[in-house]
Write the C-alpha cells for this entry.
Amino acid sequence: MSVGPYIQFRSGLRVMRSAVITGELKSKVDRVWDAFWSGGISNPIEVIEQITYLLFIRRLDDLETLAENRARRTGSSEGLRFGPDQQDLRWSRFKNDEPGVMFGVIADGVFPFLRALGGDGSTYSEHMRDARFTIPTPALLSKVVDMLSDIPMDDRDTNGDLYEYLLSKIASAGVNGQFRTPRHIIELMVAMTAPGPADEICDPACGTAGFLVVASDYVRSTHPSVLTDAGQRNNFHNSMFHGYDFDSTMLRIGSMNMMMHGIEAPDIRYRDSLSEGASEDAEKYTLILANPPFAGSLDYEATSKDLQRTVKTKKTELLFVALFLKLLKPGGRAAVIVPDGVLFGSSKAHKELRRTLVEDQKLDGIVKLPSGVFKPYAGVSTAILLFTKTNSGGTDDVWFYDVTADGYSLDDKRNPVEANDLPDALARWALRGSSELDRARTEQSFCVPVADIVAQGYDLSLNRYKEIVHDEVEHRPPLEIIAEIEALESEIASGLAELKAMLS
C-alpha cells in the first residue's frame, strides 16, 4: 500500500510529506542523470526536458494500451492515438530495437508524432508542439531508454515522487529570477490555505507547477470525494488547476509534473502575466499560490495598464501582488512569497500597495522566512504574505510569525536538521483568531491590531513590532575594575623585574 501524502505534525495538524522514494529507485534515477552528463548533456534543464519527453512517450504507450483494452470491450476507438502504421513509435515496441534503429525511429518518427499531437487540444500536447530531440548518440539513447524502462511507473505516488526527485536535481537558478521553491515551504503554504474541491487554484508564475502539484495532493487526501463524485472529479481534473509562465521549457516540465501526479487536464498556458495583465481572468480564482520572480524592474511600456492603475511602479514584486488582487474573486485568498522589501519599502508604490492590502482588503498574516531558505539559488530575505480579497476591508489584527529554522541548515548545503518551526507556525496560524491574540510581542508569533499598523505608515516588517527582551546585566563598580587592572599591572611589572634580574 502506498504511503499517503501527509504526516502528522506534533500539533496534530496535517501537512504534506516531502517526496519519498526508495533508495533503489533514487539510485536508478541518479544513474539516468549520470548517463546524460557522461553522454555530453550537462545542462540540468535540458536533461530534465529530454527525460520529460521520454517519460511522456512512455505514458502515451501506457494510455494507448488502456484505450486498446477499452476498445476490445466496447468496440469504441475513442482515446486511440497511434494508427496502424504508427505502432513502431510506441515505447513498448522501440525499446527492444537496436540502438541505431531506435535512434532513427525516435528522431524521425516519434518526435514528429509528438509535435503533431498538438492538434488534439490537450494541455500536454500543446506543450509538445516544439519538442526537440537533443540526445546526441544512439548509445546514450539506448542506455537511457533501458534505464527508464526499468523504473516502475504503475503508481501515481511513485510517479509523482520520481518526477519531484528529478526536479530537485536542478542545482542552479534560472534566468528572470526563477528558482525552485523548496517543497516543504510550498507544503506549509498549501496547508495554511487549505484548498478544497470547490476551489479554482492559480499560480501566475508556475514554473515546474510545484504549488499546483502540492495543492492537488492536499485536495485529493483531505477530500476523497474528488475521486468518487463525478462532478467533483471532472472539476478536479479539468478546471481546478491553472498555471501560467512565459518559459516554454518550464511549461512542458510543469505539465509533465501534473500528469505524473495524476491530473488529467490542467490549464498550463503560455502567458507573460505582467505584460498581458489580468483582463480576461479578472476575478476568476478563489486561491492563488505563488512565488513570483523578483527580477527587478520592467519597462512601463511592457507592463499591463490594468496593473499600473492599481500600483504605479516598474518593480515586478509589487506588480505581481497587484496582479493577484486582480485575479482573485471576492472572498478569494492568497499565500504568496515576497521579498522583504515589499513589507517595508518606502516608495509611494510600496506604501500604497500595503495600504490597499490593509485598508481595502483583509491582510491575514505574515510569515517571515530565514534568509537561507532559497540557498543555494539565492540568499534573498523573504516572507509569506497571506491575504483575502474583500474589496471592503476587514483587517482587524495581522498575525506575524518569525521562522528561525525550517528543518534544514541555512547554508548552501541545506542538510536536514532537527530544528523546525514550520509545524508550530501551522498550529499557531489556526489559532490566530483566539489564543494568538493574547501573545506578547516578545514571543515567536503574535498579532498586531490594524490601528498600530496604520500608525506605523503601513510598515509590515516583523521587526517593526517585535519586542526584544534584554536581560539585565549587573556591572561591577568602575573603581573596583580599575583596582584589579592596577593589581595585574603591578604583578606584570614585578614578573618582568624578576626576569630581567635572571638574564643579567
Observations:
- Residues 65 and 501 are 101 Å apart (CA to CA).
- Residues 44-74 form the longest helix (31 residues).
- The chain has two domains: 18-161, 182-465.
- The first strand starts at residue 6 and ends at 8.
